[in-house]
User: Fold this.
Amino acid sequence: AMFLDDSIGESVPGAQELVYAAALVLVALLIPRGILPAIEKGCRRLATWPGTSLEQKGPGPLGRLAAPPPRPSPLLRMPRRTLRQRLPQPSGTPVLEVDGVAKSFGANRVLSDVAFSVDAGRRVGIIGPNGAGKTTLFNIMTAHLRADSGRILFKGMPVDRMRAPRRYELGMSRTFQVPQGFHLMSPLDNVVVAAIGASMPDPMAASMDMLERVGLAGKALGELSALTTAEIKSLELARAMVSEPDLLLLDEPLAGLNEAERARFFETVDELVAPHAAIVVIEHSVRSLIQYVESVIALDEGRVIAQGPPEEVVSDPRVIEAYLGSRWMEHAGDQ
Assistant:
């Protein structure tokens, strides 16, 4: 770049900056994960080159970089926490109860007196237009936000003040709209982390079994960057399900999936969950959601405007107006 600037700098002002910009674009395109992961990947390929062996290199830096991840996973050497007792399910008590939850951000009221319950074994969907308060409600249920007022009860026990790891131990588990994987770790180690967090007796066996059940056993020791969107979603589900939860909370699980992948995702969920487990799904794809859940809760401007069977809720005039607007309702009424 300096040579070009000296050679043609007078006739082409800013030549050095143009070369730097082009170099940055090339780096972003060719090695999007950064230079160090690219070096490590190259070393591993070099180690498998014909006539090359790690034993010849000895314990030097190249040998250490090129070596495959050790098994059993180093995560298994972490101090193991004592397994805590799961909460019993009192007869007649909902698995999840949201009681009068309200939340504001400054002067902006996001949730107002939201209340509903989910019984054992039920599939419940939460819908609403953008800005309805779905994500805020979900984050309150999963301990990522704290409500200003109201209560969240899990099997009759208030969990408002409990941190997310404690709720996880008790039997609550969630997925994220944007998968929160550890990108420099293998799919197997991603699930092992969750299994250790749930104090599973044999984290490795539980993790491999879960990857087998979601169809990722063949890629257990691969790289996350090699997984498709559908496979990333399956890995996220495996991490949530390895703890065998009594309540599974799915945050926009169908985002980025085609119709066939969406149907297969919910089939996999049903194959993994226990019959008594409850499932709550937040999803923008209303058509796909209502084909799966047994009950729907509709939010608008932070309030519950309808709840009940899917067919009734999506036909409710208040829900239609929330999605399409009052002008559309007035126009439809004039027809």
User: Anything to note?
Assistant: The first helix runs from residue 2 to 8. The beta strands are 96-105, 108-118, 123-127, 149-154, 157-158, 172-174, 247-251, 278-282, 295-300, 303-308. Residues 299 and 305 are 6 Å apart (CA to CA). The longest strand covers residues 108-118.
